[in-house]
């Protein structure tokens, strides 16, 4: 029987120690039954730790990988039958799936729908006889055609439709154009009253404080422009006065503080009261009863 030389255990330990120093790896003792090392890379492998379980969304390619656990679908998250969490109930961790949020641009803003007015369309096409005059006291519109020669049945409702605009220069042209047309209108205003009701109603329905206050001032100017306008507006109170009744109590209460913006006359509640008084004073005999029917809290200015 041939004698087989047994490797020296002490010498193998020294060899392993030298290899660990050369490779800067932690030294581990080898058992006597282990095979002799082959280079410094084949030293004792560390114990493989259990891989952590990863949570993956359902119906994805990741569900076919190892050490993965499928997360319940949103429809079966609260159900007690048929779901993996209901059968196993081994983990109580809540896994939140990231949801991609799509940011809508300004043209897709759902909370602020944009209404393109006819005034803007005519202005962009250059069909309006107006231009901007830059003066030292402020900007003012100029008319390329004499106002007395304009067709009020066409241009007055068109400029009234621009009262709902909130962007420059549309709102500037529309508001100053309406004011100039009312000043020079006279007897031409009364026949056009039925065409002005819908633009006025749209402007009051915007729920924009600046637009509503400007529209109320325009209504007062419209009534005071001619003696025939007040009685002509009475049949249309049912279209205009519901917004008056809804915002009549919307007053600015600043307490003992000073309202420095009082000169701008932008208090909606006070403007509504002033407009109702103007309508009653210049609307004739049937004005008060029609105003009282639509605005029950209104009190006659003749009695106070």
From TrEMBL:
Disordered: region residues: 66-92
Record-level Gene Ontology MF annotations: Hsp70 protein binding; Hsp90 protein binding
Pfam families reported for this sequence: ParcG
Coiled-coil annotated residue ranges, if any: none
PANTHER family recorded: PARKIN COREGULATED GENE PROTEIN, PARKIN COREGULATED GENE PROTEIN PARK2 COREGULATED
Official protein name in the record: Parkin coregulated gene protein
Species name: Musca domestica (House fly)
Gene behind this protein: LOC101899102
């Amino acid at each position: 029987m041939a004698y087989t030389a047994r490797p020296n255990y002490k010498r193998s330990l020294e060899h392993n120690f030298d290899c660990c120093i050369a490779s800067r790896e932690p030294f581990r003792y080898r058992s006597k039954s282990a095979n002799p090392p082959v280079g410094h890379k084949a030293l004792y492998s560390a114990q493989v730790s259990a891989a952590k379980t990863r949570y993956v969304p359902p119906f994805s390619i990741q569900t076919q990988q190892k050490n993965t656990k499928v997360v319940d679908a949103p429809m079966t998250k609260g159900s007690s039958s048929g779901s993996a969490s209901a059968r196993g109930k081994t983990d109580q961790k809540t896994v939140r799936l990231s949801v991609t949020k799509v940011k809508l641009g300004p043209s897709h803003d759902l909370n602020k729908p944009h209404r393109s007015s006819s005034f803007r369309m005519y202005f962009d096409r250059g069909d309006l006889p107006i231009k901007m005059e830059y003066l030292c006291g402020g900007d003012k519109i100029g008319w390329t055609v004499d106002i007395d020669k304009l067709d009020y049945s066409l241009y007055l409702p068109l400029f009234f439709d621009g009262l709902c605009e909130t962007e420059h220069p549309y709102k500037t042209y529309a508001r100053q154009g309406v004011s100039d047309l009312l000043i020079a209108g006279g007897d031409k205003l009364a026949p056009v009253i039925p065409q002005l009701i819908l633009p006025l109603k749209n402007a009051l329905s915007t729920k924009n404080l600046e637009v509503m206050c400007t529209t109320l001032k325009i209504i007062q100017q419209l009534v005071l422009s001619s003696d025939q306008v007040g009685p002509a507006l009475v049949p249309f109170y049912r279209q205009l006065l519901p917004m008056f009744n809804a915002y009549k109590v919307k007053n600015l209460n600043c307490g003992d503080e000073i309202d420095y913006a009082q000169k701008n006359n932008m208090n909606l509640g006070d403007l509504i009261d002033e407009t109702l008084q103007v309508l009653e004073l210049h609307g004739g005999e049937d004005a008060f009863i029609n105003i009282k029917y639509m605005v029950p809290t209104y009190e006659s200015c003749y009695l106070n």
